[in-house]
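Lay summary. Proteins are chains of building blocks that fold into shapes, and those shapes determine what they do. In this project we predict the shape from the chain. Here is one chain we studied, written as its sequence of building blocks.
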Amino acid sequence: MEKEEIKLLLEKYYDATATVEEEQRLREALLSGDAGSEFETDRQLFEALEASAPAEKYPDTLDARLDTLVGRLDRRRRVVRRRRWAIFSAAASLLVVFGIAQFAFRGGHAEPEAVETMARNVRIIDNAKDARAVFYAVNADYEEAISMYGDIMAEADSITAASQAELERNYQIINELSNIGGL
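And here is the predicted shape, written in a compact code that computers can read:
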């Protein structure tokens, strides 16, 4: 192999653009010693790479065993998927049954007040401007509800803390009385 071709193949190899065939030709040229002393460093690199390559080849049956394992994993995934669908189907069926039972329990009709409330709250939006206004109004209501919820939870926490403190004081009094012999 000519030096120019070796230089070109080395450039491709170091740029990681060499094909497998070009890399094989370069390896053979460098390891055969025909390249000359100009490529001694590159030859040493390829020798080191050859020496560090695993000498042991994978067993011939490895591909078949891996295919079998992948097939088993695929079958397990399908079984899990089927189980999920079965669970979701059962849950949906229960919801339908509960809905029908609720409808039948109420005598086959919804309460008139609920229907009237829903009818009053239904609004057909046919343009983006109205949709944006409704969105901002609902968002403001949501933020107000969240704020009220936070206030209620803070108040509940303070009531709980006060009740806990009162219980602890009562417990201490009971302990003191039982130690004195009053109870």
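What the prediction tells us: The chain has a mean pLDDT of 80.
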